[in-house]
Inverse folding.
């Protein structure tokens, strides 16, 4: 059965499709991050999404480590289940990530000095390696699901540390933003709500004194009728 799968499916066109699809997905994400402008109507809404993204990244990292443990102990079925679970966590994360940035846009890190340098270094490595990880993860799964275990093991040695690093740094980036950026966003939201409640909703009208009737004319009384 495995031999039939290997002869029926030529890996080169499939890997080519994976690279093209990954390139389109990365292009869309870069557009979403640096070109798309989020609507102000969703400001302050669905603020749980960043925490959800961090949770999914953390669960993915745990599943990857569990999968590594199982394959080291030659438990292939449990390894397969763990890696599919990690892939599911990453897939849900990607959808939540897209929704979050479509609604809220990119979050600017307000820190300065060494903290900002450290954050930007982690973020840059996270973004670059996530671009590399997407086609590698898909290719690794393709080789596994089609029974090409020699190729699977060869590419998995590179895919695994990259995928694990991207998942862990995703949580680290969230921790930085939670410590520095999100309190400022919440403060601005509370301040905006306070101003909206304290500002009068009625529109003041200008009051002028009543105009006097022109009962007199210049130089004397008004003419009798």
């Amino acid at each position: 059965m495995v031999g039939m799968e290997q002869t029926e499916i030529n890996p080169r066109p499939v890997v080519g499709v994976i690279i093209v699809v990954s390139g389109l997905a990365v292009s869309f994400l870069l557009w979403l991050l640096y070109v798309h402008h989020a609507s102000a109507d969703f400001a302050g809404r669905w603020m749980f999404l960043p925490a959800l993204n961090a949770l999914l990244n953390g669960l993915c990292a745990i599943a990857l480590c569990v999968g590594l443990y199982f394959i080291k102990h030659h438990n292939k079925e449990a390894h397969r289940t763990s890696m599919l679970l990690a892939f599911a966590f990453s897939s849900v994360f990607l959808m939540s990530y897209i929704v979050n940035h479509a609604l809220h846009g990119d979050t600017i890190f307000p820190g300065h000095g060494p903290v900002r340098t450290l954050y930007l270094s982690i973020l840059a490595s996270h973004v670059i390696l996530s671009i590399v990880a997407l086609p590698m993860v898909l290719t690794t799964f393709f080789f596994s699901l089609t029974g090409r275990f020699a190729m699977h093991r060869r590419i998995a040695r590179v895919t695994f540390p990259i995928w694990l690093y991207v998942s862990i740094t995703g949580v680290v980036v969230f921790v930085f933003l939670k410590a520095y950026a999100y309190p400022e966003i919440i403060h601005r939201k509370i301040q905006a709500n306070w101003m909206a409640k304290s500002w009068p909703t009625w529109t003041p009208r200008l009051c002028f004194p009543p105009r006097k009737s022109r009962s007199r004319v210049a130089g004397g009384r008004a003419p009798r009728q």
